[in-house]
Design brief:
The protein is α/β, with parallel strands linked by helices. It has three domains: about 190 residues, Rossmann fold; about 140 residues, Cytidine Deaminase, domain 2; about 120 residues, Cytidine Deaminase, domain 2. The chain is about 35% helix and about 20% strand. The protein has a six-stranded mixed β-sheet with strand order 8-13-12-11-9-10, sandwiched between helices. The chain has a six-stranded mixed β-sheet with strand order 16-21-20-19-17-18, sandwiched between helices. The chain is elongated and about 95 Å long.
Length: about 500
Amino acid sequence: MPRALVSVSDKRGAAEFAGGLVSLGWEILSTGGTAQTLRDNSVAVTPVERVTGFPEMMDGRVKTLHPAIHGGILARRNEPGDMESLAKHGFGTIDLVAVNLYPFRETIARPGVSLGEAIEQIDIGGPSMLRSAAKNHEHVVVIVDPMDYRPVLDALRRGGVSATLRRELAAKAFMHTAGYDGAIAAYLAGGGGANELPPALVLVLERNLALRYGENPHQKAAFYTTGEPGGLATLSQLGGKELSFNNLLDIDAALAAVSAFEREVACAIVKHTTPCGIAVATNATEAFTRARATDPVSAFGSVIGFNTVVTEETAAALGDLFVEAVVAPRFHTDAVTRLRLKKNLRIVEVPRADDDSALDFKRVRSGFLVQSRLRFDSHETDWKVATKRAPDDAELGDLRFAWAAVMSVKSNAILLAKHRAAIGIGAGQMSRVDSSMLAVHKAKQAGHDVKGAVLASDAFFPFRDGVDAAADAGVRAIIQPGGSVRDAEVIDAANEHGIAMIMTGVRQFRH
């Protein structure tokens, strides 16, 4: 009788898989919580301790580290010496290993987790069994992903698992353990501190989605995931054409843009990874209407992001606007039904998730630049009014909005806002004054009155010319990090024009 060892942290589908194996005549070996889950689902289980002759020790730290387990996995069926050794000691073969590991990454992603708690989520027996099974994949099927249960069962029902599938599963197992070990090494090398970067990183990427092509049709492309919790790896596509390389870039940018607004309903309209419209409101429909008004022309062919549920009313508000994709944490069923009337529109659901611990990678030739991810900081403890005139309450509300919104604009970033909606955005220019003039131009082109607007700059003004351009357009208040050697000159310019200026002390530059 063939035997399978099933011991999983992620128990999705485990009972159904084990039950399928039993129906094919397999014996199931299992441990602890997994064994109980299988029993609860009426699956016959042989406890591992019955195979090893020893009970679990040290609160489960030692249970599968035994020759009866690893001998049964590593024995080469075509080597008489291996089989004689098993028989001599009364051990049997183990022909399938389905194991996934303690949730180490998920544990260290939680706020306030201690080193001791993290250490207890370092799996020892699991990786050892996986590596043994993957090494001997010619004779042992190894599974780390619940998504592989069905293909393996189907293959067994057809008569056996092919050499090709066995090798693919073995490669997946080694990638799984490499990524797991890499996460542990990075955590320990960083001293467990969230603000420290480790001296070495192990980056294991798993292909999540094959793409038709990259930024251009002649470039090959795919979407690979790191195994970190949350993010685009959790997306569900509810309708529309297949996602493209550029779609995913813009979807990620849209999610980043609305994530700065934790207590307000926000909508961002993104083109080429930077917003061309962004606004907050009391509901998603109004937020979209106001964001579209920022720059109605550029909204054509965009990706639209929300930080709240999309209702049928919101879906209807899109009207006949051509949109590449809409992304939100949730869609009402009737909203999906309406949006699916646009057959090519990609409807993408991505649950909200906190990713404070995630690192940001930028590829350069021969390596990566690595940094902690830019997160919006809503605290105002370091904000200072730098000018003679302080902003009034209405201006301060718009400045707060503009400071959150400008974070997602590519530099040199200038954003004009009125009534907590962007009215003009200048981005990607080689000088900040050009971005200021572009933001004013875009606002006027869309029919907005700049007089009385506020302005946010992602980095300091190196010269007073940007302030002068804003004043000429009628801007009444500015928010910027400060820190230039010419801050005094910039402040003097603001005072000359009667502009209120806040310096935040924090730069939000995105290259």
